């Protein structure tokens, strides 16, 4: 190919990462560094994404140190990427440290990531605290995508109490007719072993699809 530049290196790193080949993405970054190319914001984002796909928390710590040394630690996008990396690596304490101590400005994405991190790690009470804080912040506008992510997290972790709270909140903010949220709520109750609540919610849906029927008959 023509002469390599930082854009082509970034494309290689993100390409491997996007296809689940995090280790190869890290290898490409090392080659980029050895060839004298300086990382940019996109490199940092791709680097954290690559690490997220490797079950190696120590590497995550090294990447964070590199980000700080390179001066990219003040970018909200990079901090959000670090938060997501720690959540996916199940490094909940590190994730919360980034969230609480290093992110004075938080958006709906970062709040949702932290809630999912606590929920996935089995810290239901902490997840509930995050949810309560989110609800009280006027500037945080929870959309159906964010709520879907929260419900799905509760479903995977079996956090029915938290899921029930989020279910109630979806009704409060007017998303009770969202077909995708409805399906996720049924899935959450079913996975948590509460088939009565799943059936009750299903019977109240205005629109139903075959997937919802299947969840109740499995």
TrEMBL record:
Entry protein name: Pentatricopeptide repeat-containing protein
A Gene Ontology BP annotation from the UniProt entry: RNA modification
Gene Ontology MF term list: RNA binding
UniProt keyword Ligase, yes or no: no
InterPro entries given in the database record: PPR_At4g14850-like_plant, PPR_rpt, TPR-like_helical_dom_sf
Pfam families for this protein: PPR
Superkingdom assignment: Eukaryota
PPR repeat positions: 5-39, 107-141
Repeat in keyword set: yes
The entry's keywords: Repeat
